[in-house]
Amino acid sequence: MRVLYFTRDYTPHDHRILSALAHSQHEVFSLRLEKNGMRREGRPLPETVKQVVWKGGQKPFSWKDAPFLVNDFKRVLAEVKPDVVHAGPIPTVAFIAAMSGFKPLVSMSWGSDLLKDADSSRWLSWTTRYTLDHTTILLSDCDVVKQKAVSLGFDPKRVVQFPWGVDLQRFTPVESLSKPERSGWEKEFVLFSNRSWEPLYGVDLLVRAFIRAAKQTPELRLLMLGGGSQKELIHDLIDSAGMQERVRFIGQIRNDELAGYYRAADLYLSASHSDGSSVSLMEALACGKPVLVSDIPGNKEWILNGEQGWLFTDGDEDSFVEGILHASRMRSMLPGMGQKARLLAERRADWSKNFQTMLGAYEQARLLEGKS
After folding, report:
1. Predicted confidence (pLDDT) per residue in 210-263, tens digit
2. Phi then psi for 13, rounded to 5 degrees?
3. pLDDT on residue 176
4. 304: DSSP letter
5. Residue 296: closest CA among 182, 200, 173, 183
6. C-alpha 66, offset from chain centre
7. How far apart (Å, rounded) are the C-alpha atoms in residues 160 and 172?
8. Helices (H), 265-302
9. CA 141 – CA 278 distance, rounded (Å)
10. Chain centroid to CA 201: how far?
11. What pTM did the predictor assign?
C-alpha cells in the first residue's frame, strides 16, 4: 500500500509514527503543511520514507495560502498515487486533504484540534465539520475526542480509537544510583514538567503553584524542559519569587535523553487545559512515575485519583498547590504508585501494539471506499 502521511510539521510524534510505518510493508511518503521551528524533530526522516516537496512546508501556515495549497496537493496526489491519505490535525491539515476530494481519507485528531481549536472560531468550526463530512475513518486517541466527533455528526462506527502509546523499551522505570539530571538535589523532592510554555498547557499556573508550595516546603525543586511564547512570563515569576536556585531550566533536549528526566524526578506534573491521551503522561507512566495532572477528561481516562497519582481541579491554583503538598507528604506511597503507573502503561500504552490498530484503520478505510 502507498501511504501519504500529511501532518502539520515534523515533530517527535510524527517521527515515531513515520518510523513505525517505515518498518511496515507499506511504501510511505511524508508531507508537511508548515515549518515553524516550534517543537520540531531534529532527527532525519526514516531512511525509507520519501519526503514530498511541494508549495507548503517551508514557512508557518497562513490561511490565505490555502487555495494554492489545495491545488498543489492535488498535484502531489497525481504524482504519488497513494492508496490512502493519513492527515491531521483535523481543522487544517486534514481539511486541505478533504478539499482535494481524495478518498479514502484517514483523518487523525491530535486531541486539542477537536477539543479546543474546533470551537475557537466560526471558520475552524466550519473547516472541522467539512473535514469530518469528507473523512472515511477518524483516528481518535481517547473517548472524549470520539464523543466530540460524534457530537459534530460523525458516524461512531467510523471511529478507530487507540492511544498513541510510547516505546516501553526506552521509557522504563529502571533505576540507577547515579541520576545526573538531579545532581545536587539527591535529598530534595523533585517535580518535573516538560509541556510547552504555551497558554494551552497551563505552565504559568504550574509555576505559580510550585512557588506557593515551595514557600511552605523548602525541599521542593522543579525541573523544566522546553520553552515557548510564555518564556518571559515564566522567568519573571521565578525571579520575582526568588526561586532561581530551586528551578532548573533545561531547555530543549534530544528525545533519547528524555527518559532520564522522568526517572530523575519524584513526581510528574501537567496543568494542561486540553489533551486527548497525552503522550507525555504515557511516558511518565511508562517510567514508573506517579503523576499530578489536571482533571480534564483526557487525563481522567488514564488516572484514578490515589492510584497512579492524583488529579487536581483544572485551572485551580489552590487545588494544584494542595496536590503538590499532599504528594510531598506521601513519599512512602510513591513507589507503589509508580508500579501501578508502569502496569497501566504496559496494559494500554504499548506503541508496538497500538500501532497495529492504526494500520488496521487504513485497511478499513479502503474497504469502506470499495478499494480493497
Report:
1. 999 999 999 999 999 989 999 999 999 999 999 999 999 998 888 888 999 999
2. -65, -40
3. 60
4. -
5. 200
6. 25
7. 28
8. 279-286, 297-300
9. 9
10. 11
11. 0.90
Q: What is the C-alpha separation between 115 and 185, in angstroms, rounded? A: 38
Nearest C-alpha neighbor of 217 from the set 322, 336, 335: 322
The values of phi and psi at residue 341, to 5°, are -65, -45
The owner of cell 508502569 is: 342
User: Identity (one letter) of the amino acid at 71?
Assistant: N
User: From CA 360, how far away is CA 330, in angstroms rounded?
Assistant: 43
SS3 content of the chain, % helix, strand, coil (to 5): 45, 15, 35
Contact 51, 72 (CB under 8 A): no
Cell of residue 356, nine digits: 497495529
- Dump pLDDT digits (tens) for 121-175: 999 999 999 999 999 999 999 999 999 999 999 999 999 998 889 999 999 998 7
Domains of the chain, earliest start first: 2-165+351-368 (3.40.50.2000), 180-348 (3.40.50.2000)
